[in-house]
Amino acid sequence: MIIKKGDFSDPQVQDLIRIHLHGMHQNTPIEHSFALDFSSLQKDSIRFYTLWRDDQLLGCGAIQELNPYHAELKSMRTHPQHLRQGVATHLLDYLLKIAKHSNFQKVSLETGKDSHFDAAIHLYKKFGFVEGEAFAEYNESEYSQFFHLNLSNQ
């Protein structure tokens, strides 16, 4: 498996982002969904990565700088054909290494509350994320929960 910067012109990448957006909008009302679209993922504050096995896209994930000390994980998605193969673990590990290398002291994320998000929440907790307060521009709601990882003591 190899991780590389996401190429938004690649049809597999475009398809996976569409799958991600569709999944988010199926499980969360649109006004409470914070999934990033193509143009948002291409902002300067965001680094978007893809995980490949040979010529098959397995998954994607992004890290967004909120400020010089705080980053947010975004757009974590495993392709439906590659679930339960360690894709999300590889991506999360890679994104956290980027966060540490970038000297972020804290990494946060927003995710949903219903059972569709259980596997992701389990993974985040396995990596040491703890549930906490809303951050950045998010607000508490019945659809969102927030997790944080303090990197300053790792």
Give me a quick take on this structure:
The protein has 154 residues and is of the alpha+beta class. The protein contains four helices and seven strands; from the N terminus they run E-H-H-E-E-E-H-E-H-E-E.
Number of helices: 4
Considering the protein shown, what is the CATH homologous superfamily?
Gcn5-related N-acetyltransferase (GNAT)
Major beta sheet, strand line-up: 1-2-3-4-5-7-6
- Main sheet: strands, sense, barrel: 7 strands, mixed
What do you see in this structure?
The chain has helices at residues 11-27, 38-41, 87-101, 118-126, and strands at 2-5, 46-53, 56-67, 70-78, 106-112, 130-132, 144-150. The chain is of the alpha+beta class and 154 residues long. It has a single domain (2-150), classed as Gcn5-related N-acetyltransferase (GNAT) (Aminopeptidase), CATH 3.40.630. The two termini are 26 Å apart. The model has no long low-confidence stretch (mean pLDDT 87).
Task: Detail the topology: elements first, then pairings.
Layout: E1 2-5, H1 11-27, H2 38-41, E2 46-53, E3 56-67, E4 70-78, H3 87-101, E5 106-112, H4 118-126, E6 130-132, E7 144-150
Parallel strand pairs: 4-5
Antiparallel strand pairs: 1-2, 2-3, 3-4, 5-7, 6-7
Q: What tags apply to this protein structure?
A:
154 residues, alpha+beta, Aminopeptidase, 7-stranded mixed β-sheet, 4 helices, 32% strand, globular, Acyl_CoA_acyltransferase, Bact_Acetyltransf, Acetyltransferase, GNAT family, acyltransferase
